């Protein structure tokens, strides 16, 4: 697909490739029961508005050209002829619009009447999808008028002035335009979703549909809306697809039922757009087809199940018309249908590891604490160990490790005095962090020891001939390794474990001293990113209260630092980690989208520019993205020999589990792409 040009706030411009975002919509036009001409006009207005908004696929409600509540009028030939003429009219009037849309229509086929969805694009009737499952229970009575779609394939028919038109169920409509090959659309009708084995399963698994459109007429009763949302979201999660659900609304007969017109769009289990009940609004969302396909490729159980019948057929279509499909030349791109992250309407969470909802966040924190403590508890019980040793610096990571260890000891009924928290002041230790470490340890009732590393490291400098005035990597790492030696030897003396404190973000960047703080006997924070560590510590502060809360809040307010360089003249921390390797909120954003979905650097960059607009300019995002990829590839050797630790989220870097990467893999492809993204000065 042709690249689009966007203009930056600084007046420069750059080329950007599309990132797999595709805009879909579900709408409820106001109708009049049996007034086909008026309903067609209302449908046309929805189609035109959707096209104006750049929508590529629009679903309208079930039987929207007649109304779902026509009852015995469905059998009237006058109504059926009017519907066919209306479809023909709408095909003609939308011939120039780059949008695929559906029309709900009853269709006579030989001796049967079918509840159909006409799938239309660029003046072409792509097919008629027939409802497979007809409810005839409670308030529903569809089998009085309609026949269910037969299992066996049906002969194509002539309809709305076009032939041959495929008719049946399970058809997948696949776009052949350049750059739009991931657009594969399946259609099911209302009740088809509510049955044990919906047709969308075959359409997605066997036919490759990435988008499912559901034309529905779901009457409203107490409690149904929430269930319906769960159903739509659940199906989108199960199929790794986008699911758009259009509901009947105003204008349907209210003799016995009321239709609320709630339109829903879900993606991979999450509701990304919905309209309010009792409105005739349009739900519009940019769905990420790139993400959905990445999920399918990652999941090794994504394969045709034994019970699947297979897609009932595939119909190719082009937004440029039928001639493009039939021609030998590959159809050209359709501008603006596939979007970049900067051109779409999606909002990308700045902290994807952290729930935005405070209630969800508290629940998440409790669950993570439970997982970390359960892992450590099991390891301690298995080995019969009743002692744990932690290097407590007064920083966030070691604080979290101590809190987790206390939970594990409490769960085992072990005395907290079996936990030895060790403060090991060195050349960069400040009074603030040293004081917080001691205060927290004593408040929690664990054994606290202070062992200075000054003399040992100075002796080591003498042994290796290093000038202490040279504060280089040797100066820094010697301190980290001396601390690890103290912890390991102390653990041997006590018959205990050294508890690792490093977090997921540090592992991604390699921000650890090899065979120093990089090593432990159980790494409780190994799959917890830095942005989440903060929330876990804050959550614990609220649980404890009192002096512990006061201390934890001060630790949260302390700059992140390894404290390996001498403090400033006034005793403040001189070495700030985020000044050296970059903001952790950016790195966690990069890490999540790289590992979870395998997105390209370009896509991640554009997503980050959109998410952090106003906080970081484009050059800042770009520069730290380059640092992230360079370090991520160069530091894999540290991750290849990590100690054990519990997995708590969907993104981890354990070499035995979620991430297996050669330590000598070249970063050239990724860095070249990043260099090509460099913003205009």
Task: Give a verbal description of the structure.
The chain has 681 residues and is an alpha/beta fold. Strand 6 (112-121) and strand 7 form a beta hairpin. The radius of gyration is 31 Å and the shape is elongated. The protein starts with a strand and ends in a 5-residue tail after the last helix. The relative contact order is 0.09.
How are the SSEs ordered, and which strands pair?
Blueprint: E1 4-7, E2 13-16, E3 21-27, H1 36-52, E4 57-59, H2 77-93, E5 100-109, E6 112-121, E7 124-130, E8 157-159, E9 162-165, E10 167-168, E11 172-175, E12 184-189, H3 199-205, E13 211-215, H4 224-238, E14 242-246, E15 264-267, E16 270-274, E17 282-288, H5 289-298, E18 314-317, H6 322-326, E19 338-339, H7 358-383, E20 388-391, H8 396-412, E21 419-423, H9 431-444, E22 447-450, H10 454-464, H11 473-494, E23 497-500, H12 504-509, E24 522-523, H13 530-544, H14 546-556, H15 577-581, H16 584-597, H17 601-611, H18 618-634, H19 636-639, H20 668-676
Parallel strand pairs: 3-4, 4-5, 7-10, 11-18, 12-13, 13-14, 20-21, 20-23, 21-22, 23-24
Antiparallel strand pairs: 1-2, 3-17, 3-19, 5-6, 6-7, 8-9, 11-12, 14-15, 15-16
């Amino acid at each position: 697909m042709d690249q689009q040009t966007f203009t930056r706030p600084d007046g420069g411009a750059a080329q950007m490739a599309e990132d797999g975002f595709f805009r879909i919509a579900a709408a409820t036009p106001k109708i009049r029961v049996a007034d086909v001409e008026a309903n067609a006009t209302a449908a046309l207005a929805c189609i035109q508005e959707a096209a104006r908004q750049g929508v590529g696929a629009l679903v309208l409600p079930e039987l929207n050209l007649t109304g779902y509540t026509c009852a015995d009028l469905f059998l009237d030939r006058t109504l059926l002829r009017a519907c066919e003429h209306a479809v023909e009219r709408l095909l003609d009037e939308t011939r120039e619009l780059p949008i695929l849309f559906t029309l709900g229509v009853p269709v006579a086929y030989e001796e049967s009447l079918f509840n159909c969805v006409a799938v239309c694009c660029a003046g072409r009737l792509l097919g008629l999808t027939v409802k497979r499952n007809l409810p005839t229970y409670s308030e529903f009575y569809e089998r009085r008028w309609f026949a269910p779609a037969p299992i066996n394939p049906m002969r194509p028919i002539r309809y709305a002035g076009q032939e041959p038109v495929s008719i049946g169920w399970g058809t997948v409509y696949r776009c052949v335009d350049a750059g739009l090959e991931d657009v594969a659309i399946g259609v099911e009708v209302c009740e088809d979703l509510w049955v044990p084995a919906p047709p969308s399963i075959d359409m997605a698994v066997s036919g490759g549909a990435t988008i499912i459109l559901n034309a529905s007429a779901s009457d409203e009763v107490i409690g149904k809306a929430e269930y319906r949302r769960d159903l739509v979201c659940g199906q989108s999660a199960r199929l790794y697809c986008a699911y758009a659900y259009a509901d009947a609304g105003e204008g349907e007969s209210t003799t016995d039922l009321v239709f609320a017109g709630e339109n829903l769009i879900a993606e991979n289990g999450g509701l990304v757009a919905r309209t309010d009940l009792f409105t005739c609004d349009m739900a519009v969302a940019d769905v990420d087809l790139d993400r959905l396909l990445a999920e399918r490729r990652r999941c090794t159980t994504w394969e045709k199940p034994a019970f699947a019948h297979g897609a009932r057929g595939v119909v190719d279509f082009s937004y440029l018309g039928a001639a493009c499909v039939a021609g030998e030349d590959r159809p050209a791109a359709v501008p603006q249908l596939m979007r970049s992250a900067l051109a779409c309407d999606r909002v990308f969470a700045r902290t994807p590891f952290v729930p935005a909802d405070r209630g969800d966040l508290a629940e998440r924190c409790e669950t993570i604490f439970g997982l970390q403590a359960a892992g450590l508890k099991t390891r301690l019980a298995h080995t019969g160990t009743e002692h744990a040793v932690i290097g407590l610096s007064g920083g966030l990571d070691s604080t979290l490790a101590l809190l987790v260890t206390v939970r594990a000891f409490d769960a085992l009924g072990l005395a907290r005095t079996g936990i030895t928290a060790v403060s090991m002041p060195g050349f960069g230790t400040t009074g603030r962090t040293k004081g917080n470490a001691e205060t927290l340890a004593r408040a929690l009732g664990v054994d606290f020891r202070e062992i200075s590393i000054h003399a040992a490291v100075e002796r080591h400098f003498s042994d290796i001939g290093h000038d202490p005035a040279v504060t280089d990597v040797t100066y820094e790492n010697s301190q980290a390794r001396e601390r690890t030696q103290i912890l390991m030897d102390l653990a041997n003396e006590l018959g205990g474990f050294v508890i690792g404190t490093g977090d997921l973000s540090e592992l991604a960047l390699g921000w650890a001293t090899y065979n120093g703080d990089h090593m432990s006997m159980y790494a409780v924070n190994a799959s917890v990113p830095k942005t989440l560590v903060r929330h876990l510590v804050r959550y614990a502060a609220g649980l404890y209260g009192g002096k512990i809360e006061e201390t934890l809040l001060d630790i949260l307010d302390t700059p992140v630092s390894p404290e390996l360089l001498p403090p400033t003249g006034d005793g403040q921390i001189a070495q700030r980690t985020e000044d050296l390797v970059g903001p952790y909120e950016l790195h966690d954003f990069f890490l999540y989208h790289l590992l979870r979905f395998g997105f390209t650097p370009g896509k991640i960059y554009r997503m980050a520019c959109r998410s952090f607009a106003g906080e970081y300019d484009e050059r800042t995002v770009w520069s730290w993205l380059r640092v992230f990829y360079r370090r991520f590839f160069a530091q894999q050797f540290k991750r290849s020999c990590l100690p054990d630790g519990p997995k708590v989220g969907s993104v981890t870097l354990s070499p035995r589990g979620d991430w297996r990467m050669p330590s000598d893999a070249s970063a050239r492809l990724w860095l070249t792409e990043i260099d090509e993204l460099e913003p205009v000065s």
